[in-house]
Amino acid sequence: CDPDGVTYWFTCEYNVASTWSTRIAAFTLDPCTPPVCGNPLGLTSSSITNTSATVSWSAVTNALSYDVDYKLTTTSTWTNAATAITSTSQNISGLTLGTTYDWRVRANCSGGSGNYVSAQFTTTSPVVCNAPSGLTASTTSTTGYVIWNSVSGGNSYDVDYKPTSSSTWINVANAITGTYTILSNLAASTSYDWRVRTNCSSGSSTFSTSQFTTPAVTACNAPQGLVATSITTTSENISWNNVSGAISYKVDYRATNSPTWIVATASTTATNISLSGLSLSTSYDWRVKTTCSSGSSSFSIAQFTTSGTIVCNAPSGLTSTAITSVSASVSWGSVSGGNNYDVDYKANSSSTWINAATAVTATTVGLSGLSPSTLYDWRVRTNCSSGSSSYSTAQFTTSALAVCNAPTGLAATAITSATANVSWGSVSGGNNYDVDYKANSSSTWINAATAVTATTVGLSGLSPSTLYDWRVRTNCSSGSSSYSTAQFTSAPISGCPDQFEPNETFATAAPVSVGININAQINSATDNDYYSFNNTASQRRAMVTLSNLPADYDMQLYRSDGFLLRTSQNRGTASESFTLNTNTIGTYIVYVYGFSGAFNSSQCYTLNIQLSATNFSTEAPVLNSVTTVRGGIKIFPVPASDMVTVSFDAYKKGTAIIIITNQLGQEVVRKTVGVGDGINYNTLDVKKLTSGLYFLKVVNDNEVETKKFTIGR
């Protein structure tokens, strides 16, 4: 076409019948119409990185050039990337990582520009693909064993090498997943460069480069014929062929995924060694080199993999021994490879196992707390490093409960007024014995011996002319027998040995036990006796009684600091008594003395100290009591049985209270009676009282007269 409408002339020569002629003619071209400019198609985005991307499209017919813009998807402002370019692709750089972008392109034609066509792409997030580190090489004159550390995030590795003198790299491995490779066919005494790079999902790292030099060929050859045998989960036997001229060999090993070699032996003349302490199902590298007089060879390298299964065997040889009615010992044979054992047991009739031992290293366990004549199941399993075995099970039956017989042949000998020896026959199967005693009139047993192995026990602190009960029982492994009981009567007093002297001062007070009779005497007008005792947290209250008086004796009670607490000063040979209902725990002093120098050098008095957790009767023989009736109290019959009659000659008319208390100071009878001037008679019912010693008190105008009596049936 001709956009200017020009007429064109031309001439033409032609030959007809050997005659040349010339002809002139003219022509014009059609006027030009601008073509339509189409839209680009096939928009694609490629080579997208953190900061750049390449955009491309298909060529448009009649297009002279193209305009390219881009922008963040989140903005409305376009940035021009290229104007009037003739190529059908454009690189856009300077982008932000991890960001979505819009881009557009239009075609420019002679008649104008077409429409913009848009597309999108998103830049990648940063992925750091690190180059390997820890490059090391073990070499021979012809091979190189090169290794490196594993790279986190790396998928595989590429390895090249070349002689240092060369500029051309030789690829030895592409996209390998291991962290080592072997270079072969190397030249001796040659320096080599080698390099490795990491291949990540995001691309490849830079190369890490190292060097090694192959050794010269020497007469000291590296071992050959490397073999691994007897492979287990934790051990291995490795061997190699003998090298001519070898002095010794050095052997190393390591887990294949470890960069660190472990020296198995620095020098051995043998051509085999055993490796132990290995991990199951693990690949190991091992290497050996020869030591010659001229030096050492290079290492020869091989691999093996430990097996993956450890058999943890159940115990065998289960036995049950030392079986009693309540216990047994169970044992089993030691299991090779076992670390420890778990043991359970149960009655055969039960479904619930009881754990006896967990992770015990011994092969014997004692069971206790069993029931007699019972069938028991027991089981044991082995605990290994790889887990636990199944249980091995056995049974045993406990023996019947042993009969624990009560002692026989009870006898009392060497009886005095204050002591006696009690004995009995030995009981077969008995471990030891318990012995108690008490006055027959008392309901409270006093322990004389517990778990004593002898068959004789001495009793002391007895009261003269007193009937005593004593009992003994056997203690066996299965329990205790019933008590066997007997009696004896202490001898009357003949003379009075006083074992507590010297105790004439507060500072030399003799310590005495509570709950027993203490017999002593005041043998001169200047003699007096001090005694000390302690109350306890469980028995704080005290009652002190002074009886069997051969003369007019009185007594007082002091604290350990000398403070006077109580005084009892009855006239004549009437018994003295006082109580101390206190909460204070400590040491107390009892002072016994003759009134106006009274004494008796041939007869004893009896002192008794009782403790209680509860208060003693506050109306037991009181302090500073005085006689309120003429001639004292008369009681009959003695001993009393069902009824007792009391007579006294009163000073005046009125009322009186008659009270009977037991040896613990506990009130058991109380009766208020009318009193006339002169002799009075009153009868009291005592048939409900048990046999024993009692105190009868007549209280008249707050004054008290006391007399002791016995009840016997």
| Percentage of β-strand residues | over 45%
**Describe the biggest sheet?**
5 strands, antiparallel
| pLDDT averaged residue by residue | 87
Q: How many DSSP E strands?
A: 58
Anisotropy-based shape:
elongated
- Percent range for helical residues? under 10%
- Cα distance, first to last residue? 164 Å
- The DSSP helix count reads 0
Subunit arrangement of the protein: single chain
The low-pLDDT segments are 619-630
Structural class estimated from helices and strands: mainly beta
Radius of gyration (CA) equals 60 Å
Descriptive notes:
- This protein is mainly β and 713 residues long.
- It has no helices and 58 strands.
- The strands form 15 sheets. Strands 5, 6, 8, 9 and 10 form a five-stranded antiparallel β-sheet that branches. Strands 13, 14, 16, 17 and 18 form a five-stranded antiparallel β-sheet that branches. Strands 21, 22, 24, 25 and 26 form a five-stranded antiparallel β-sheet that branches.
- The chain is elongated, with a radius of gyration of 60 Å.
- The termini are far apart.
- About 2% of the residues have low confidence.
Properties at a glance:
mainly beta, five-stranded antiparallel β-sheet, 0% helix
